[in-house]
């Protein structure tokens, strides 16, 4: 099936919104599939932005803007108060069913605050103890055990 391409004049009419809605929908769907027509459409948008707006008759210009914007009202489900209402209703339902209480019972101490463990110095940064110091430490420890045994009555003077 061969794809039907649109001319630059047709894309300019699309940009200026002077086509019926069925033709606009068909052309919009065509933009998703055809890179060549998308390039022509982008050129049409750039040209429409470069053409100056004729505001010689300000009243008609203002009326055009008003007619375009009067019928456009944001949907009720996009309002902030609607979102707050949904959040409040969901919170009330969860509280009434005991969801938060059960959740806290299940978590127990997992959710409790625990201080962070102390930082450990990596082995590569620790100061190396010389062998002589290690031998002195072991000898002194051994001597301490001998003295403790003497106090218990193990060795006689």
Secondary structure topology:
Elements (H helix, E strand, L loop, with lengths): L7 H8 L5 H13 L1 H16 L7 H13 L9 H17 L2 H9 L23 H21 L6
Helix pairs in contact: 1-3, 2-3
Give the averaged pLDDT, no decimals: 79
The number of distinct β-strands equals 0
Give the N-terminus to C-terminus distance in angstroms: 114 Å
Strand count, sense and barrel status of the largest sheet are: none
How big a fraction of the residues is strand?
A: under 5%
Poorly predicted segments = none
Question: From the helix content, strand content and strand pairing, which structural class follows?
Answer: mainly alpha
Question: How many helices does DSSP assign?
Answer: 7
Radius of gyration equals 41 Å
Range of helix content: 55-70%
SSE topology string: HHHHHHH
- The rough form would be described as elongated
């Amino acid at each position: 099936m061969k794809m039907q391409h649109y001319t630059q004049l047709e894309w300019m009419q699309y940009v200026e919104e002077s086509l019926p809605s069925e033709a606009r929908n068909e052309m919009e769907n065509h933009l998703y599939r055809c890179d060549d027509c998308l390039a022509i459409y982008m050129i049409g948008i750039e040209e429409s932005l470069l053409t100056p707006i004729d505001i010689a008759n300000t009243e008609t210009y203002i009326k055009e803007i008003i007619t375009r914007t009067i019928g456009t009202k944001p949907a009720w489900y996009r309002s902030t108060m609607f979102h707050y209402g949904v959040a409040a209703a969901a919170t009330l339902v969860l509280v009434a069913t005991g969801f938060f209480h059960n959740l806290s019972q299940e978590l127990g101490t997992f959710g409790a605050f625990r201080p962070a463990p102390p930082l450990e110095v990596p082995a590569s940064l620790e100061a190396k103890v010389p062998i002589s110091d290690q031998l002195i430490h072991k000898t002194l420890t051994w001597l301490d055990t001998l003295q403790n045994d003497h106090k218990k009555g193990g060795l006689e003077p």
